[in-house]
Amino acid sequence: MFIFFYCFIIKFLNFGLPSSCEGQPLIYCKSRGLTRSFSEILRFNFSQAIYYNPYSIKIFLFFLVQLLARFFVNTIIRLSNFKIILRLDVSITIIFFIFSFYNLILI
Questions:
Q1: How far apart, in whole angstroms, are the C-alpha atoms of residue 39 and residue 43?
Q2: Contacts for 6 with CB less than 8 Å, ≥ 6 apart
Q3: Which of 7, 25, 62, 107 could crosslink 100 through cysteines, CB 3.0-4.6 Å?
Q4: Contact at 8 Å (CB) between 60 and 41?
Q5: pLDDT in tens, 19-77
Q6: Is 83 in a helix, a strand, or coil?
Q7: Of 66, 54, 60, 74, nearest to 4 (Cα)?
Q8: How confident is the model at residue 26, as a pLDDT?
Q9: If we measure between CA atoms, which residue out of 53, 49, 52, 67 comes closest to residue 4?
Q10: Which residues are CB-contacts of 48 (< 8 A; sequence separation ≥ 6)?
Q11: Which of 33, 27, 19 is nearest to 107 (CA)?
């Protein structure tokens, strides 16, 4: 939740952490502009978000789905078989992580 909060208020405070990637091409630093991009996604400005970082929407969706999934899975675990739900949750999370961060992991 902190990621969403930080990215939302950063635009109003005019405060940000400096990036070690500033000035480098995207091919060398694929995470460049993610904070600015997340901030634009929270404001529904998707074209500007893609301009800052073309991989940002998939990464943002990973964090959003994981936040919502934690509430959902915790409720289901209380009501059903813990081991089956936990294995399914871990498997889906790993697959979704690879899908979302694939472009950042590979060089």
A1: 7
A2: 35
A3: 62
A4: yes
A5: 677 777 767 788 888 888 888 898 899 999 999 889 999 999 999 999 898 888 877 77
A6: helix
A7: 60
A8: 67
A9: 67
A10: 37, 40
A11: 27
